[in-house]
Amino acid sequence: MHPRVQEAMNSRLKVSVLLLLLAGVRAERTEVGPAVCHPDCTKYGNCGEDGHCRCPFGRIGEACEIDFLAPCRQSPEADAHCGIVSSKSCGCWRRCREYFCVQTDFGQKCHEFDHWDRRACFHREGLPPDQQFSNFPEPEEKDVKCFEGYTDGAKEVNCTEAAVFNNDVTHPLSECPKQCSKRGFCMTLKDAPGFGPRCRCDRGYYGEGCDSEQENICYKQCSGRGKCIDHFCHCKPPYFSIGCTRSKVYPANYSRPSPVDFKIYMYELGTQWAYENFLERFLDSPVRTEDPSAASLFFIPAMAYAYSGNVGVANEHLTAVIHHIKHTYPYWNRTGGRDHFFWQTNDRGACHLSGDPMDAIKIVHFGSTATPDNHGTMPPLGHKSYGCAHPLRNVVAVPHQPGDMAGWRGPGT
Ligand SMILES: *[C@@H]1O[C@H](CO)[C@@H](O)[C@H](O)[C@H]1NC(C)=O
Ligand SMILES: *[C@@H]1O[C@H](CO)[C@@H](O)[C@H](O)[C@H]1NC(C)=O
Ligand SMILES: *[C@@H]1O[C@H](CO)[C@@H](O)[C@H](O)[C@H]1NC(C)=O
């Protein structure tokens, strides 16, 4: 492995991958000012308030200089994907595994990847790792080998077999219109049989051949302060945060604000996947403050849905996020988390939480209070006396389904 990659990977081992964009120790600050990071940070990333560079998906390193998931792109210009539906290069699976599964204080974090070990893949012989792109080999390509599994000693298989996963088939780009503009995967999905190969476009692209570009897929369209690249706002300094909505960093300050001037501070977790509708409104809402010491409430934008699947348990993820917040900022400990809130979406939402995440306010969708004593149609889950939602602590909010679902295809492929 390249020593810089090794170095970057080592430094990441201590941190949950789910937190990989927010690792490290917060620089002590004594005055209000712009965030200060590695001098090259803003070439690809944004300078976070903790002095660490926030990289777009797939990039790592102090200044995001390493395009770690390059093999997961179909071409150098395309987006990187780690989704399991389409077939990918063996190098891509290995990098995805390294990117997402690391040893943390909470154990090996690998949920979505555990059953991937035997995922079939292809390898173009003689090409260096960063050029093992994930466009499925064309029939006439020579020196391609396919494997069942991507670890050492994986069994070689016929590439026709390597194209199939759970009855979904990945095709060479030449079998789809306009080769999907090299901005999507060419696939026949089992849920849509009879259609033959079709493009599943990268996020932000649409049309039969992925040749149309969707505009404004970034929060606040980056507030006019940056460029939207693959759902990541690359902000002009001194701007940072989701949608380039912040420019100032405040020193940590334990004092409590006046309860009358109600403000909410949002932690900077540096992720691009959020509870979109709420976030979109919150980002430039007058209730938001950049100064945590002026906040009555603290919003933790932990992306539990994106990482936990439909009804997966987000507890480990949230525990890791809270661990970071607890050790980096003084605010959680002041109230034991009771003035902090996060979303717990989906039907089971907060049902399976335990430990630190229990203490915060949860915004949930179902708000089930079914218990062993009172359950009706909902099975009793969660806390034995109040079920999945504490009526005095939690807030029930209806789910919001964006009208345009095109964007949801990206993460899965
Ligand atoms: C690969 O497998 C498919 C179907 O299982 C078969 O039709 C094809 O002939 C095989 N190709 C090679 C090169 O073995
Ligand atoms: C802490 O915050 C309070 C309220 O915003 C402010 O009055 C005080 O000057 C701050 N202290 C420091 C050391 O910044
Ligand atoms: C908050 O409390 C925990 C112990 O529960 C401690 O380990 C941590 O260092 C404290 N955080 C800060 C910022 O002091």
List unreliable stretches of 5+ residues: 1-27, 402-413
DSSP E strands, number: 23
Q: Class by helix and strand content?
A: alpha/beta
Can you summarize the main beta sheet? 5 strands, parallel
What's the end-to-end separation, in Å?
Answer: 27 Å
* Helical content class: 10-25%
Q: How many H/I helices?
A: 9
Question: Shape from CA axes?
Answer: globular
Average pLDDT, to the nearest integer? Answer: 81
**Proportion of residues in extended strands:** 15-25%
> What small molecules does this complex bind?
2-acetamido-2-deoxy-beta-D-glucopyranose
Strand order of the largest sheet: 19-20-21-22-23
Q: What Rg do the Cα atoms give?
A: 22 Å
Overall description:
The protein has 413 residues and is α/β, with parallel strands linked by helices. The chain has a domain at 252-407. It is 15% helix and 18% strand. The strands form 8 sheets. A 5-stranded parallel beta sheet has the order 19-20-21-22-23, with no helix packed on it. The chain has a 4-stranded mixed beta sheet with strand order 5-8-9-10. A hairpin with a 5-residue loop joins strand 3 (59-60) and strand 4. It binds 2-acetamido-2-deoxy-beta-D-glucopyranose (3 copies). Residues 326-327, 330, 333 line the site of one 2-acetamido-2-deoxy-beta-D-glucopyranose (NAG).
